[in-house]
Amino acid sequence: MTKEDFQKLWTLNYPDTVPISYLFKHDYTDRWFRIHSLPESKRYPEDENEWQVLLSRQNEIITDLFGLEPPILIVTGEYNWGDDRQIHITDEEEIFKQFSFVRLDNIELHKIDAEQYDEPDIYRPAFAQTIWKPNYHDKLLREIANDNTRVFFISFDKKVIVAPYDGGVDFVLKDSLTKENFKNKYRQWLSEREDGY
């Protein structure tokens, strides 16, 4: 898949946002929901038993959404705060060495949130092709759960975004009915907060 292919599919499927995962819950509230990775909304695992609970939950629901061994994309990137640093997270982090990333156009962050970002601040997204299968990405899921990196998975074919973070997983599904069906199926893993966070 080329950069142009990705951009075309992104604009077609997600015209109201950019490929930065923390924005999804604001830009697609009708199709978004979240599960927590550990009982009682505990944020970080403290032992191997809790890691197994986290990985079991995440693998179960992600496999339920994607299916077995479909082609998917992983999307990540790095922030640049206006200086001349040339940081390339996809080249420098060991966890990403197995993937072949394609860089996307820089995102000018001040155009998204002028209060939070200055004019030179940019985000450099990149994507790579892979597959989803249970436990295949456990090492990456552990890094995300430890807040060492940020990645989301996407299937344009299934219209599913899966965005793990340190504490749980955000999902954007194809429509609100599908979202409600999955929310109900995994209701024991939902946040108890009114806003679903």
TrEMBL record:
Pfam families for this protein: DUF3885
UniProt cross-references to InterPro entries, sorted A to Z: DUF3885 (IPR024976)
DUF3885 domain: residues covered: 21-193
Natural source organism: Flavobacterium croceum DSM 17960
Name the UniProt record assigns to this protein: DUF3885 domain-containing protein
